Amino acid sequence: MRFPSREWFEAAAVAMLGDPAVIAAIADFGPVVAGLVVESFCVLARIEPGKPVRLSFPEDEDELEELEPDYIGWASYELCRTLLRQEKPDPLKAILEGKVRLQGDLERLVKHAGRHRGAGLEALRGVPTEFV
To answer: Distance (Å, rounded) from C-alpha 16 to C-alpha 126?
Structure first.
């Protein structure tokens, strides 16, 4: 599946919900609405404990921002490719180093991400990914 695409993110959401570590992280973090912008591709995820992730695909960053998610992350295609290919990727480190621009409650994110470091990464590796 081509990254980034609607198909890839839908498969990634299913894969991640099959990971017990992700389920634990969602239960700990609580409900959240998060957006991601990779180059010009936008995705919005509504995540709640015990429920399937609901994805939508805003047309552009402006539309995504109008939806007022709790978090929005902006990441380059190259960074995403690197993180998905690394043996031990550290998305939190990328955020803290400013490689990912983030809008939202960074303190809450760091608190929970530190406890659930690496949750979902192996699940994402199971998603067939084609970088073009």
So the answer is: 10
Q: How far apart are CA 52 and CA 5, in angstroms?
A: 19
DSSP 6-42: HHHHHHHHHHHHT-HHHHHHHHHH-SEEEEEEETTEE
> How are beta strands 41-47 and 32-38 bridged, if at all?
antiparallel
pLDDT per residue rounded down to tens, the chain (132 residues): 999 999 999 999 999 999 999 999 999 999 999 999 999 999 999 999 999 999 999 999 999 999 999 999 999 999 999 989 887 778 888 888 999 999 999 899 888 887 888 888 889 989 999 998
Domain residue limits, the chain:
2-131
Cα(95)–Cα(74) distance, integer angstroms: 10
Q: Is the pTM of this model over 0.85?
A: yes
2-131 has CATH 3.30.1050.10 classification:
yes
